[in-house]
Amino acid sequence: MPLIVTLAIAATGSSFANWALKKRSRWVGKQQNFVRPLVMLGLLVLVLTGIIGHSSTSFVSNAMAGLMLRSVGSFRSGDFIEVQGNFGRVSARGLIHTEIQTENRDLNTMPNLFLVSNPVKVVRSSGTIVSATVSLEYDTSQSRLEALLKEAAKRAGLGEPFVQVVDLGDFSVNYRVAGFLEEVKGLATARSNLRVEILNALHKADIEIMSPSAMMQLPIPSGERLMPSREVPSRIDTGGKEALPEEIIFDKADEAENTEMQEKELAKLKEERDALKKEMDEADEDGKASIQSKIGKLENEMDGIISPLVDDKATE
Question: For the whole model, what pTM was predicted?
């Protein structure tokens, strides 16, 4: 439509200029010297309009997608999301794009239209399931393995563990052990901890983990097993003194989450203050004093939220 309108204006302008010049006898024969530049100018404007129109289409589409994401509220800053193989925590939400911080601490920027057009998996902030799959031979009973794997999940800090048989292969059985993780901010560490505890539990029980292809390629003497020569100590129990890797990996996502929560709390306090101000207009003198005291407390809380936000923005 912008191209059609521009083309119509350019054609009308050129025709009018040509008609006006023909009306003046002294310009007869020279109208081409005036019309030609106008035509060239019209073509230039037409090209620029096409470029701007094409760019504005992408801009408007992403802006509309951003508004849609905000209104739907599928995820917020700090949430773990995955879309088309991109996994990380949301570190910024803009009108045109959304930024996620990956497990390598890198920042991936994705257009909002891309998020609207593709399925987005969001890890629930109330908790998620952490799982791992391990292949074991048929010579160990399923009941014994289930008990060992559940114990490994408990030692990894997962609640309500369960074990499933996901596949019966030609040479091994594939087991899936899983449990509930309440604090999802430690998701990456929890996944690693679960695998560590599975290794420790199976090695301690003298149960070998080895794929059939490895057995066919490596010459192993009869009765010898590929296992650690001594027990590997668990590294899970650190007494709560060791910082989680997520605190370093997802630093910007943590800041974005805290900022968004503070802004929501600030908006809530403002609504309460405005409601009290309206109530004070209809109250008597004693009531006004009590309401004014409540308003003062709310404003003090608001100042406590606003000051850190201003300092963070000034630092940025």
Answer: 0.61
